[in-house]
């Protein structure tokens, strides 16, 4: 009996990779359950197994009970308890192992399909990849190896349920870390990732090493690095944005490939009005609004795209002030924004002064008669000849 217990513990330890102490505790619990089934449910009963010899001892308090015949029914009960303890030990081991991998990239094989959901085998456990966590357009065959992110792990009564994902932005981040050594080595840092799975992703990167081109490193020679990532994501478009602390520059980078004419910022509301030429509007907005939507999420600013024509820009360059209600501002043209604002304000004041002068000399107005301006003009017209300078005769040369 003693040798059988040791062999049982050693076999379970090798097959299930469970710590021997946990197995010994499970065997003790199984024997205790069998003893209570035979002798009654007494609180003082206890079973102890020697870890070296495998000898089991039944105690009633401090008293050792000799020759306890468990019987067949009690042995079956103990066997069920042992199996339950082993399952719990396996569950806790798997939970502890995969809990540390939450949010990390793992590789598995598609085991089977259960309706729209996929069961992925990670080696020691089968995990669930729901249809909601699969990007549009993705199709996998049974036996195909795929890369997934461990999204969530739940501990059930007897097993562990692991939810996988291929729609998380963490998948794109992990793929970049896998393909771009500079990111794994912390030379290049990923600042932000926004994604519409299956369609488009924007990733903002930066580096503190001036000898490294963060965008070029992510793209790779002839696009080799980015191509591997795009292939893994079934052709999903990826925009690599150079991070900048200036929100104006970041918005300009985030809306590429569109060319921005100007940007007006409202820092209080975190809103930006982005002016573009008509031929750049579709690029700025993107297909189904994806470009501007992802740029807004990347910068964490609300972006409003407004078109401005070449004629409006040319008018402003010539000094013509836009009419009220037009979106174009002086900032849209002049690189020096403070000088542009001052020039525009000066022009507006000049026009305002002109309109006031015209109102003063308006004789048709019922409220204005012969004004001081008119009187001054008449006085100038009726100057006396004596007020003119005297003529000086030139010498005739006769002496």
Keywords:
399 residues, alpha+beta, N Utilization Substance Protein A, Chain:P, domain 4, OB fold (Dihydrolipoamide Acetyltransferase, E2P), GMP Synthetase, Chain A, domain 3, 5 domains, 5-stranded antiparallel beta sheet, 3-stranded antiparallel beta sheet, 13 helices, 14 strands, 40% helix, 22% strand, elongated, disordered C terminus
The first-level CATH class of the largest domain is given as Alpha Beta
Please report the number of helical segments: 13
Summarize the biggest pleated sheet: 5 strands, antiparallel
Rg of Cα set? 42 Å
The percent range for strand residues is: 15-25%
Beta-strand segment tally: 14
Question: What would the average pLDDT be, to the nearest integer?
Answer: 77
Q: Could you give the order of strands across the largest sheet?
A: 6-5-4-7-8
Shape: elongated
At CATH level 3, the topology of the largest domain is: N Utilization Substance Protein A, Chain:P, domain 4
User: Which residues sit in consecutive blocks of at least 5 with pLDDT less than 50?
Assistant: 321-341, 351-399
Structural class: alpha+beta
CATH architecture of the largest domain: 2-Layer Sandwich
Considering the protein shown, what is the CATH homologous superfamily of the largest domain?
NusA, N-terminal domain
The ordered H/E elements are HHEEEHEEEEEHHEEHHEHEEHHEHHH
Number of domains: 5
Percent helix range: 25-40%
Distance between the termini: 161 Å
């Amino acid at each position: 009996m003693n040798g059988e217990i040791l062999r049982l513990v050693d076999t379970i330890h090798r097959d299930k990779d469970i710590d021997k102490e946990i197995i010994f505790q499970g065997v003790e619990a199984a024997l205790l359950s069998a003893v209570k089934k035979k002798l009654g449910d007494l609180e003082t009963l206890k079973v102890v197994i020697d870890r070296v010899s495998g000898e089991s001892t039944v105690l009633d308090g401090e008293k050792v009970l000799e020759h306890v015949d468990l019987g067949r029914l009690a042995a079956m009960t103990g066997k069920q308890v042992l199996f339950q303890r082993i399952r719990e030990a396996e569950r806790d081991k798997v939970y502890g192992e995969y809990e540390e991998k939450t949010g990390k990239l793992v590789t598995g094989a598609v085991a089977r399909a259960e309706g729209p959901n996929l069961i992925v085998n990670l080696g020691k456990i089968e995990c669930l990849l729901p249809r909601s966590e699969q990007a549009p357009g993705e199709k996998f065959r049974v036996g195909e190896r795929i890369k997934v992110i461990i999204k969530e792990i739940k501990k059930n009564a007897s097993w562990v349920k692991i939810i996988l994902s291929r729609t998380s932005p963490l998948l794109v981040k992990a793929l970049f870390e896998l393909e771009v050594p500079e990111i794994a080595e912390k030379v290049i840092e990923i600042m932000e990732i926004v994604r519409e799975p299956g369609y488009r992703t924007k990733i903002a990167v930066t580096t503190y090493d001036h000898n490294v081109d963060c965008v070029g490193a992510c793209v790779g020679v002839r696009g080799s690095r980015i191509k591997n990532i795009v292939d893994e994501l079934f052709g999903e478009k990826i925009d690599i944005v150079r991070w900048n602390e200036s929100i104006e520059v970041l918005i300009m980078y985030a809306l590429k490939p569109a060319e921005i004419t100007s940007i007006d910022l409202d820092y209080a509301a975190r809103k930006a009005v982005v002016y573009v030429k008509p031929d750049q509007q579709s690029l700025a907005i993107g297909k189904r609004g994806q470009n501007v939507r992802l740029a807004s999420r990347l910068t964490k600013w609300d972006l409003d795209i407004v078109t401005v024509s070449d004629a409006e820009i040319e008018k402003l360059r010539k000094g013509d002030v836009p009419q009220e209600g037009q979106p174009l501002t002086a900032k849209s043209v002049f690189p020096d924004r403070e000088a542009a604002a001052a020039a525009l304000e000066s022009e507006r004041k000049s026009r305002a002064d002109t309109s006031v002068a015209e109102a003063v000399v308006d004789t048709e107005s019922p409220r204005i008669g012969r004004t001081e301006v008119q009187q001054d003009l008449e006085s100038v017209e009726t100057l006396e000849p004596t007020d003119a300078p005297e003529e000086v005769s030139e010498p005739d040369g006769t002496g």
